Amino acid sequence: MSHLIEGIKGNRFAVFGRAGVDMFADPIGTKSEHADTFRADLGGSSANICAGLVKLGSEAALITSVSDDAVGRFALNRLAKYGVDISNIQLLGGEYRTSLALYESVMDDFQNVIYRNGAVDFQVTQNDVDRVDYTRHSALITAGTVFAAEPSRSATFRAFENARAAGLPVIFDVDYRPYSWPSADVASEVLSRAGAESDLIVGNDEEFGFMAGGMDKGLDKARELAGQGKLVIYKMGEKGAVVLADGREVRTGIYPVEAIKPVGAGDSFMAGLLASIAAGYDLQEAVMRGSACASIVVSKPGCAPAMPTTEELNSFLADHPGPTKA
Q1: Which listed site, 14, 73, 158, 162, has its alpha carbon 20 to 30 Å from 39?
Q2: H helices of the chain, where?
């Protein structure tokens, strides 16, 4: 556990996973099919985590591929604007495409349309991850989507090996997206392997249940992983989270807000959790700060642009009642 915390406190993260583009209907409350205007910004779970980390004072480098076209370059430019290190991102030509998500700031019948045919981020190779200078980073982060297809699946497991060889802990956001996988059986097997090879695992109750083979077995799966010496964060939506570490289980609440959309919370939680540990907060406080980040993001349009700065996070915590009791 000390190795993990030391790596996080190094505050220099190598992040594996996709960068994409989000288009969200404007203004708030407009359904996509009735929109006259869409706003565009950075998207993709790992890119969002990077943006969230940098806004909170951390260093983050994204390792992925984007399409060598206007959309891919848009994603690169947005990453750079947020201050993310893009030196390890490959531009690929041909028919591979940067992913696009089209959604709205509406909770009632929320619609999120994902375009991921020929996804370019799945084309990250072992050569790509071998080119990364792991000594420049203190911890590795990955979101689970990278494992959904080859060659990125094998490449990311290779990155795990490279990280361990360089002394970096591995942080795994389960982030199960069924539409990306060839089958549920493959996803369960591969995500379970990724969890077994990680030092910190963050996921919600459904994701742990999926890995365990039943929704009622999720907490037992989290306990099994924690029993192997891992730090596990078991998220339960409005019911808060359970932190499992060193044989202890600590339950935490949430900060209720008026949400305008259900997406982006997990990415912001991860960024807030890690940046807060790096800033010296204890684990329970860091989880609560991550929860506050999640609440902030679901109350604003977009994902990357909604990620709070440290000043915005501290202001939210000072002004907001709560958290709820676990």
Answers
A1: 14
A2: 2-10, 45-55, 70-82, 126-130, 152-165, 184-196, 205-212, 218-226, 265-278, 283-298, 310-319
- Name the amino acid, one letter, at 221: K
State the Cα–Cα distance between residues 91 and 98, nearest whole angstrom.
Answer: 10
Query: Average pLDDT of 167-191?
Result: 94
Q: Based on the structure, what is the number of domains in the chain?
A: 1
In a domain, 324, yes or no: no
pTM over 0.70: yes
Q: Report yes or no on 326 lying in a domain.
A: no
User: What range defines the domain where residue 38 resides?
Assistant: 2-319
- Among 231, 155, 219, residue whose Cα is nearest residue 195: 231
Mean pLDDT calculated for residue range 305-310? 98
Alpha-carbon distance of 153 to 143, in angstroms, equals: 11
Summarised one tens digit per residue, pLDDT across range 36-57 is 999 999 999 999 999 999 999 9
CATH of residue 150's domain is: 3.40.1190.20
Residue 164 lies in a domain: yes
How many CB atoms are located within 10 Å of the residue 221 CB?
23
As a whole number of angstroms, the distance between CA 47 and CA 142 comes to: 11
